[in-house]
Amino acid sequence: MNDLAPLRTLIKERIGLHFDAASETTLREALARRIAHTASDGPAAYLARLRADEAELMALGSLLTINETYFYREAQHLELLTDHLIPTLRARDRGHPETPLRILSAGCSSGEEPYSIAIALEQRLGAEAAAAVRISAGDLDPEVLERARAGRYGAFTFRALDPALRARHFTALDNGQHQLAAAIRARVDFLALNLLARDYPPGLQGQDVIFYRNVSIYFDPPTRAQVLAQLARLLNPGGFLIVGVAETLANDIGLLRQHVHRGTFYFSNAPLAPPARTVDPPRPAPRTPPPLDPARRYAEALELARAERYTEALTRLATIPLERRSVAVLELRALLEFETGAIAAARASCEQALASDPWSLEALLVSARCARRQGRAQAASTQLARAIYVQPECWRAHYQLAELHRAEGAAAPAAREYRIARNLLAAEPPPPGAPRPLLPSALSRRDLRLICERHLARLAALGAD
After folding, report:
1. DSSP structure class, residue 197
2. Measuring CA to CA, which residue among 148, 117, 388 is closest to residue 240?
3. Backbone phi, then psi, for 140, in 5-degree steps?
4. Suppose 406 and one of 67, 125, 414, 448 were both cysteines; which one would form an S-S bond, judging by CB atoms 3.0 to 4.6 Å apart?
5. CA-based angle 196:197:199, to the nearest 5?
6. Taking 70 as the threshold, does the pLDDT of residue 89 lie above it?
7. How far apart are CA 390 and CA 354, in angstroms?
8. With bands split at pLDDT 50, 70 and 90, how would you rate the model's confidence at 272?
9. Helix H or strand E segment including 102
10. Rounded Cα distance, 147 and 103, in Å
11. How far is CA 153 from CA 178, 266, 282, 418, in A?
12. CA–CA dist 279, 222 (Å, integer)
């Protein structure tokens, strides 16, 4: 088949997968494999079969997606579920406390995700989990679903699973695979699910939590919006949706409300938050040239700040009229106000900066420091999560979050963030795109790395490695 356009169109219309010209090699390889597997008489005959054979279309779709999964992948989402979302849902007045909560794994592949959910819930709820939560899991390919139902896995899929959980829930087989316990398998109902179908299988309505992770990467923006809208309609009022770590921004399109808990993003179908407060629009420019150059005043203030002449730097920034203060000016002013102990003023400057640019890295970092100084730990955690979201290579955000977790006694999350900060600090030269702080640190990168290692050693001694 020289022209792949008909095949691309069919795949896009029927199962939503988007393949551009850059994906031609992948598409041709998958096509050749399925033609050979089905003994079809060439590409044209196979295309005709695809149009009539839904199962074969699903098999091709499964081949075109990575299906890369393993137990406890992106474990922070399981922690979010067991430590925050489930308690939140159970605390609500549901009217029917005997009704189990419902969780859907959309795009479950060979079952590692829904089974990880079942294991995590059993760790949290014990024997009560079986009756308290009902788990459904859907995927395109019937063959993949059969493997999921069988619950037999090779050793590589356990690379992120605690060995104690592996020993508890799996039995080694003679062929090198491991069989999942029947009690866990019984907690998951598998079903064929095409996310682009007009009608989803009956009975899926009324979900409390939907896991929709590492699936939307295969969809173009219009398809992503369509699928997200359909999944949103499956949720109960106040239900939650969890996407992959790398997919948050792509799915934050206004259909659902975004939240963050301890650095982990998720969505809900709660009413959307009101629009962010914005700063007053700039006043009309004067007819005569302004008596000063704001860019030059900012540069002068930054030079004074780097010489630790903070009060003079603030005075220089104050000469810039309110209507001409850029986000950069507000960021520097907030940092200087914090360094001089004016915490309330620093917080106000951060709010002004974030009103103009909600993803201002420096404003988020200073805002987090203000929140922690004022005893608002959750607010600090939220701002740091946003900072890491916008700039994952920022060691300062990871280090601040590690310090916050350690102060709260959350040893494991603290160790994770110290480890990330240490690795970023060890990179020489720093990673491309890594942001430079406005003001130089009193400690060298080596000293900061050693501090991280010392904290990690202490946390490891507490069993938090």
Report:
1. -
2. 117
3. -70, -50
4. 414
5. 135
6. yes
7. 13
8. very low
9. strand 101-106
10. 20
11. 5, 29, 61, 33
12. 32
The two structure tokens encoding residue 238 = 């106040």
Locus of tokens 């899926």: 204
Residue type for 243, please?
A: V
pLDDT for the residue 278 = 46
- Tokens standing for 127? 């024997």
DSSP state, 462?
T
Q: Could you tell me which of 90, 107, 312 has the C-alpha nearest to residue 192?
A: 107
Candidates 382, 377, 378, 373; CA nearest to 354 is 382
- Report the phi/psi class of residue 238: left, alpha or beta, with left for phi > 0 and alpha for psi in -120 to 50: left
Could you tell me the CA-to-CA distances from 448 to 2, 184, 368, 445 in Å, in that order?
57, 44, 19, 5
Pairing verdict, β 207-212 and 101-106 = parallel
Q: Output the pLDDT for position 252.
A: 84
Tell me the pTM: 0.55
Residue 432's SS3 state is coil
Are the C-beta atoms of 147 and 190 separated by less than 8 Å? no
Which residues, 6 or more positions from 224, have their beta carbon under 8 angstroms from its beta carbon?
Answer: 216, 250, 251, 253
**Alpha-carbon span 450 to 39, nearest angstrom:** 62
Cβ(324)–Cβ(290) under 8 Å? yes
Kindly state the average pLDDT of the residues 417-439: 81
DSSP string, 365-386: HHHHHHHHHTT-HHHHHHHHHH
Which range is least confidently modeled, 264-268, 288-292, 421-425, 428-432?
288-292
What is the greatest pairwise CA distance in the chain?
A: 86
Q: Amino acid letter at 384?
A: L
Name the β-bridge partners of 211: 105, 242
Residue 186 CA to residue 165 CA, distance in Å, equals 17
Q: Which residue in the block uniquely carries the two structure tokens 């160790």? A: 415
- Amino acid at position 436, single letter: R
Half-sphere exposure of 311 (CA within 13 A, CB side): 1
Contact between 426 and 444 under an 8 Å Cβ cutoff? The reply is no
Residue 4 to residue 22: CA distance in whole angstroms = 12
Do residues 180 and 151 make contact, with C-beta atoms less than 8 angstroms apart?
yes
